Amino acid sequence: MELDSLTPDMPVLLQELGVSYDPDRLASALAPRSGELNARAVKVATTLGLFLSRVGQDFATGRLEKNMERRACELRKALGDLGPSFVKIGQGLSSRPDLLPKIYLEKLSELQDRLPSFPSDIAMRLIEEELGMPVESLFAEITEEPVAAASLGQVYKGKLHSGESVAIKVQRPGIADSIAVDMLLLRRLMKIVDRNTSEVTQDLVPLVDEFAQRLFGELDYLQEGKNCERFTSLYSNVPRIRTPKIYWDFSSRRVLTMEWIDGVKLTDRAGMAGAGLEVVDFVDVGIECTLRQLLEHGYFHADPHPGNLLATKSGDLVYLDFGMMSEAPANARYAIIAHVVHLVNRDYYAMCQDYYDLDFMDRSVDTRPIAPALAAFFDDVLESSVSKLNFRAIVDGLGDVLFKYPFRVPPYYALILRSLTVLEGLAISADPEYKLLAKAYPYMAKRLLTDPSPELRKSLEGLILSDGSFRWNRFENLLREGSQSSDFDPEQLWVLAKWLVSPSAGEIRRPMAEEFVRLIDGFAAGSVREQIHNRIGEEMADRLVPVGPREMDHLARGRMLLSRLRGSAGLSDVSMPLMGSGPFGIMTPREIQSVARFIREDLAQRVPQLQALIQEPGAMEVMNQVTRGLVSRAAARTVKLVAGISSPQQSSPSGGGADR
């Protein structure tokens, strides 16, 4: 069927079927059009059959790897020649590392919609047919030619009689019939493949059905308008995110009228530079918005290609085209974050378990043999810090693993990968050193710290506990990174504190209290040593208070933590009694207990949240454990200090500290 010959007078199949995809009803509706189906089937079978025969020949002659790039280019051309349905299929396959090798993914990602615009007189007739009024009665102005065109439709700029500038999106005539025919033929072809090819590890017919459902959804402009409004209701509070208003009185299934927003495409370097806008700045906004879409509500824009993103002079990032949306189920959102935690911990067997929750594997499949392959790839990747990791390189490397094992990547996950790689690609075009994961980490850290859900609390526990020990450096890094998230509020940390003293955090409290004892003791020891050093000199300081790198590190950490807590809790004017009356300011056990009372009584009066917090049994448990630990260490240090003063000639080791 030649697309260029289609006109609005052709039967519109979706009017018979409705807008939802139903393969059985589709087959029944197309049954009277067997001649058209057969002609199209010959073209599709000839084009794809030629490609498959070449791949088969490569396999038979042992040249599969050698000719793979060439065949990938041939597949890209074949799909492009077959028209918009197959272009969309190729674009969808470009984010499926479980189905195709990496070189195929790269080549198919280059597929573009290249159909010419259709005549404007046909577009005007379609507008009148859909909206039931002459164009001049609907719009005060409308451009003679489209301002943008793609495979499914084209856009005109207009003005309502009430004065608002609008974008008028008009569906390409006959495109629904064309897609319906192609989806039916593709489904029949994949059914044959499923029955006769054992090498394919998952059924292909369900993949065709899922893709066809999404593609049919793009043909319903009323649904697209509803998608836009739902997206707006969920994410309009995200800083610098904007979406167009929908004008429902001027919209129908094949015509969508929305607010016209002046902006610059992120790929328009000259336009961005002329407006004084930075591509990377807008990609940063897009990445945080994408993460919030994926991990908060799960409803996300699944097609954020450069043409669907605009930068405004006021600094807003505008999302357009809401035809392709997707949803990540709640269990998958938590599983994604848990997967990141397991990756950071290099817990590859736990990562294998994650694949059940992510719906990558049926639970009847043993995933443990995959762990060595994950280790072989990620051990090298993780030698770099998070800030140096390239998301695309990770996706490509992981894709090799996915392709070798019987993974079944869910549609939502494939779209997530596509969304994030598109955004990183935009940024890299402006800054080759840009790293998406470094920009995403602050949001992930904030979620781990502030989200009260049991699933994320479990992930947080897994990140900051190791063999029963509290990893202070991990916790500190989360605080530092999380505070850089655009919507971070220090008050949210009280939610974390409340959880830490709750019954559900019992496993983490003892190691946390032990780490507090080490931190405070090291901080105090370093402070006392500084007093001695300033009054007597370095040699005597080394002898009387032998501290090693750990104590000096605790001193620096303690000062930073104290400064951060004072600032975030509004305690900048509070003086903490951290120096005692003993020699060189060392605190006595009685003074340590006085500090505990100071926190429970005086400080709690200043901070209502703290007052409520310390009433919890878990808080008293931590304070008692910390007090006992500090009293014990202070007594030991006092004995050592007195012994050092009374035996000044006795040599003392230069390192070590409180943990000896």
UniProtKB/TrEMBL annotation:
* Source organism, top-level taxon: Eukaryota
Q: Which InterPro entries match?
A: ABC1_dom, Kinase-like_dom_sf, Prot_kinase_dom, UbiB_kinase
Q: Show the coiled coil region(s).
A: none
Identify the Pfam families for this entry.
ABC1
Record's PROSITE patterns? PROTEIN_KINASE_DOM
Q: Which residues form the Protein kinase domain?
A: 141-470
GO molecular-function term, one example from the UniProt record: protein kinase activity
- Into which family does the record put it? Belongs to the protein kinase superfamily. ADCK protein kinase family.
Q: Which PANTHER family match?
A: CHAPERONE-ACTIVITY OF BC1 COMPLEX CABC1 -RELATED, UBIB DOMAIN CONTAINING KINASE
Q: What's the protein called, per UniProt?
A: Protein kinase domain-containing protein
Record organism: Tetraselmis chuii
